[in-house]
Structure formats: C-alpha cells, structure tokens
Amino acid sequence: MSLKSTLRAATALTLITAGSAFADAHSATITIATVNNGDMIRMQGYTDTFTEQTGIAVEWVTLEENVLRQRVTTDITTNGGQFDIMTIGMYETPIWGANDWLVPLNDLSAEYDVDDILPAMRNGLSHDGTLYAAPFYGESSMVMYRTDLMEAAGLEMPTAPTWQFIREAAAAMDDPANEVNGICLRGKAGWGEGGAFITVTGNSFGARWFDEEWNAQFDQPEWADALNFYVNLMNDYGPEGYATNGFNENLSLFNQGKCGMWIDATVAASFVTGADSTVADSVGFALAPNAEGVEKRANWLWAWALAIPAGTQQEAEAKQFIEWATSKDYIELVAANEGWANVPPGARASLYETPEYLEVPFAQMTLDSINAADPTDPTVDPVPYVGIQFVAIPEFAGMATEVSQEFSAAYAGQQTVEEALAKAQAITNEVMEAAGYR
Fold first, then answer.
1. Both 97 and 117 in a single domain?
2. I want to staple 303 with a disulfide (CB 3.0 to 4.6 A). Which of 135, 179, 180, 333 is the partner?
3. Dist. CA 328–CA 348, nearest whole Å
4. Mapping DSSP to helix (H, G, I), strand (E, B) and coil, where does residue 430 land?
C-alpha cells in the first residue's frame, strides 16, 4: 500500500471511530448535484471513503455553474425530486429555506460542531436563525498576481490596491508578444458569473442596484464609471474573447502563465499555487481593489454549500453525507493526503486556528477578505437589500441574468456601454414594477 493510501485509510478509520452519527446507516444511494469546480471534483474522489464507512452509495451530477443553478432551481420549484443533496449558495439558501423547500439542519450531531462554522457563513446560510445548508467551503474575492512580472515591471503590489493601481500594473505586465495578458477577469453572462464580478466592481465605484425606494440605478454616473473602466481595462489588457470567460476559463489562463493578474474567488488560491499551475512559485495575493476615494472594495461573500431538498426519501442518509463532507475530519482527510493548502477554505473557524494551515501563503488573506465583506452594508449609499454580489430577493436571479447578458454583449463589442446600461435600467425597473416593489 502506498503512503497516500495508508494515510487515507488511517484517516478513514479515525472518521469511522469518531463519527457515531454514521453508525446506524443502512444501504442506500443518494444523488448529489454539484458544480464542476476543483474542490467539488476533489470531494468526489473521496466518496469511496464515505461509502465504505456508511454503506451509502453516492451518484454525482456535476454541472457547469450556470447550468447547475438552472437545474437545481427548476427541480426545487417543481418538486422534481431528482436530487437528495443540492450544491447551492448564500443567495438561494435563505429564500428557499423561508419557502420550506429545504430540510432544516438543526439536528446535526454534537461532534459536527455547528458553532465552529464561521459566523459570516452560518448567517448567510440561515433563515430566522435556522441553518438550511452547510458550507463545504467559503470564499470572498481577492487579487492574485504574478510576483515575477510585478517585480520586472518595477512595481510593488499594495496589500489593499486601488483600481487605478490595477490598471497601471496591467499595462506594465501586458506582453502580447509572449501571450501574457495584463489582467484576466470574468465577462461570462450569468448572475453568478460575470454578473457577480461586475456587481462588486460597481460597489467599489460607489454604484448600487437600487436606491432605498427600489428604483434601479443603472442610469447613475457611478455605474457608467464602473462599466466604462472595466471595458476599457479589458479591451486594453485582457484576453481576446473575455466576454465568455468565467471562473474556470480564467483559472486555466492564469495557470498557463497567460495572466499578469486575476481578481476572483479566494478559493482559486490553492489551484494557482498547485501542481497544475505553471506559475505556482510566483503568485502573490492582495485584497480586492477599490476606486480612489471609495471605501467599498470589490470583494464578495459566498459559500458553496450542501442542502437537502424537502421531500427527499433519503433525508437521514443525506444528512450523514453533509456531516461527513463539511466536517473537521474531512478537512484533516484532505490535509493528510494532499497537504493543508488543498483543504476546503473559509468555512470553519478552527481551520484558521491550525498552525499548519496558517503557514499556507494565502490563508490569512482569504480570512481577511471574508472578514472585509459585509452583506448588510454592501454599498456606499444606503440600499434596501442584503447581499454583496447579489440582491437577496427572489426576482434577482432572473433579472440579473438578463442584465449580465447585456453587459457581456457590450464586452463583445455588440453594443455600447451606454446602450447596455439603458437596457439594464429598463429590465430592472420592469421586473420590480411587475413584482410590486414600487
């Protein structure tokens, strides 16, 4: 047996002996819908460990982010019953919990230690104080950059950069002759893809989706400033076709050495410094930027979390899986096999009290970025909503997807920024009027 197999077996034995909540399991199969990102793919690789100790088989439905959201939303709203566990986030969980579409997670075992979940994650995945989804990992957003290119440009990345510095650095690092783009950012349509990124960029320029009377604000100068800055930055120093690039596409570009900077989810840090990255030894981290004179930064708050749809026939088995996959023991399992840099970040306070983890170069910046995000105070001027990269109302997903499509069309040169903003204003006001907000 290899060292890796020995460690895995040893850790699995620890899980078996410590996890009394799993002892009464009987043979069953659960179906889980999840997103096709690296941490979720990694979790699937450990599924046999869970099955061996519980007798519960797991079938995975792994989907691209936009497709996942469509599938699980359709299933939950129609009571389709295709899934026993869904991977959802801070937008869906409180809304679906309030509608009684999810099973409350208010009876997890003492060994699981719910109180160890970071307050920002626990609060964002609860409704009226009841937890409805358990975070597999939590994230904010931050700057990831090539330290070698920054040094060659004669620049030094501040811990808390401005957008103006980011543009200066992108110009200095941009090297088309060697296929290096100064910066790579999301432009892909979808409320949780490019829509999330441009929303937090808007926040960092003083923009907001709505004023206190639920009037759309895309006709205000702050939005014009934010969107024009983004389009000009990417047209000048971004990759061709950035209008269709999301998280995974930019991760691939960065790991191939084709990006001087990338501003995206903090969870990407383990991948840009991992074995698949050609630039792993020259990556630095900084807080997400703000525009000069604006106090808000372009950072978001999110958790990819596991939830159980109401009406499942496998509720007990689903809870067992959630306890296993989001536990302290799972973190230790991954650490033993793949190193502390590869454990799911941002969900548990105890992780940030672990000396071995704090030696990971991006650990503290991840925590600082999460702590800098406040969904109850997301913008410079007051707003009637909660949420940083989303607005926590049921209507948001549909209208924000439409708005993001208009913005992506502007990125692709199919319309002007002014036209995209005018359409965003009309789309948003029409939805809000129809829903009775105004």
1. yes
2. 135
3. 8
4. helix
In the numeric block, which tokens belong to residue 295? 């106090």
Tokens of 355: 């000396």
Cα(36)–Cα(343) distance, rounded to whole angstroms?
17
Q: Do residues 218 and 312 both lie within one domain?
A: no
Judged by phi (left if over 0) then psi (alpha if -120 to 50, else beta), residue 263 lies in beta
Total tally of structural domains belonging to the chain: 2
Strands (E), 275-329: 283-287, 302-307
pLDDT at site 24 = 43
Q: How far, in Å, CA of 387 to CA of 109, rounded?
A: 30
3-state SS class at 346: coil
Does pTM surpass 0.85? yes
**Nearest residue to 309 via CA among 79, 127, 29:** 79
Residue 74, token pair as written in the block: 């359709």
| 356 and 396 share one domain | no
Beta strands in 92-232 (DSSP E): 126-127, 130-131, 134-139, 141-146
Tell me: pLDDT of 8 over 90: no
Q: What would the pLDDT profile of 336-370 be if each residue is shown by its tens digit?
A: 999 999 999 999 999 999 999 999 999 999 999 99
The CA–CA distances, whole Å, from 212 to 158, 361, 385, 438 equal 34, 41, 8, 11
- For every residue of 66-115, DSSP letters joined together read HHHHHHHHHHHHHT----SEEEE-TTHHHHHHHTT-B-------GGG-GG
Q: Is 408 exposed, middle or buried (0-12, 13-18, 19+ CB in 10 A)?
A: buried
- DSSP assignment, residue 372? T
The pLDDT tens digits of the residues spanning 100-113 come to 999 999 999 999 99
> In this predicted structure, what is the pLDDT of residue 438?
82
**Contact (CB, 8 A) for 367 and 350:** no
Rounded to an integer, what distance in angstroms lies between the CA atom of residue 107 and that of residue 127?
A: 15
Per DSSP, what are the bridge partners of residue 32?
60, 85
One domain, residues 200 and 279: yes
CA atoms of 354 and 375, how far apart (whole Å): 27
Spatial distance between the Cα atoms of 291 and 162, rounded to a whole number of angstroms: 5
d(CA 206, CA 8): 49
* Residue 72 domain boundaries: 3-139+302-360
62, burial (CB in 10 Å: exposed 0-12, middle 13-18, buried 19+): middle
